[in-house]
Amino acid sequence: MLRPGLPGTHPSSTVGAAATMEPSRPAPTIRAVTPSLLLPQRSSTGPETLAEYRARGGYDGLLRARTGDPTWLRTEVATSLLRGRGGAAFPTARKWELAAAATADQKFVVANGGEHEPGSSKDRVLVERHPHAVLEGLLLAGLATGATKGWLYLIEDMHGPRASAEHALSELRAADLMPFPIEVHLGPTTYVAGEETAALNAIEGKPAKPRKKPPFPGEAGLFGKPTTVNNVETLAHVAWIARQGGAAFAAIGTEQSKGTLLFTLPASVQRPGVYELPFGATYRQLLDTCGGGLRADRRVRAILPAMSCGFLLAEHLDVPIAYETLRPLGTSPGCGGVRIVDDATDVVALAIEIAEFFMKEQCGQCPPCRMETNQFVHILKAVQGKKGPGYADKLAKLAEFSRKKGFCSLIEMAAAPVLSAVSAFALDFAAAAGPAAPAGS
Length: 441
What we know:
Radius of gyration: 22 Å
Shape: globular
Strand order of the largest sheet: 4-3-2-5
CATH topology of the largest domain: Rossmann fold
Structural class: alpha/beta
Distance between the termini: 40 Å
Order of helices and strands: EHHHHEHHEHEHEHHEEHEEHEHHHHH
CATH class of the largest domain: Alpha Beta
Helix content: 40-55%
């Protein structure tokens, strides 16, 4: 699995410090951007305290929501055009309206920090370093949708984030800032456990496997009640929007992609870590200005914006990062966990690595997904074994047959990088596969 490397410091850095993470994981470097929404410059490397957070306006939005009609917040979030930061980019306001409109004696809200995608550490960093921003966003989402209880959903190996969140919750209770109770729940360390309905099953004590939709969580989620599930980065943005307003958020970014996004850069750059950039920045800026360029003077051939996306070729590194600009190129920002393909990368081996990850991490309950992920690995290993051409058609037909036949989107997520790799690196795959066997052999 891909993990960020050890942090580096650099004299030209505008912000310094490395995050304190759990001992088993390298500590990402965190640097702020202007405007900084989620990663403010701080002298301390520890979790932000309640006093520190309130000194920069933290919980001002919550106090307003508690004393007035919280529908103003739904309006501000709609104005902001905020999209979910878990990778799917679903409009946050639409998700909230579904739960807010539902009639029920109880409603719930969940902050989803179940991050288990190789190459992404942004949710871990955010919860560990800035737990109050996440918790305020969770409380605001609950008030805006009528929730009576909330959960912060993490995974079992998130020791540092869990400790930060538990301490922040104790500070909130002591300050009487909690309009409804919040629990921290730890899900299993599987990729699919981060899917929103799998997280709900885990909280209910069931196997962490996705549910068939509809109904959607906003209609029938936890224990059959309307439930709003948002990624922790999304909720940290909500806390900022509650202070600064939806129009201020919408003024950052591009026409259809608003605000900032957190990116995780891998150990193949000079300064790996988690960075915040506004939409409209470029991957070249991310790699060179933030990351300091590649190690060992390697040349970038392509990047994978996130594990479940298509590849972006080096010629497109100056395209603004936005949903509307990357979609025509067959990819998306995803969750921002960047993988770099350089001139030393074996792209066939990389495609197999990705396919094997999805084969291992699919939960097993949907036969088309089991078939697709297993067959992807089988076909790609045949390429690696010089079994000749025909692999591209097999992969494409398999992906088309399986499309939208799973309870969750993993079936599409597994296909995207594999099909993209075969297209983007056609010559590499053809060379690896070798010629067709002679007739009659």
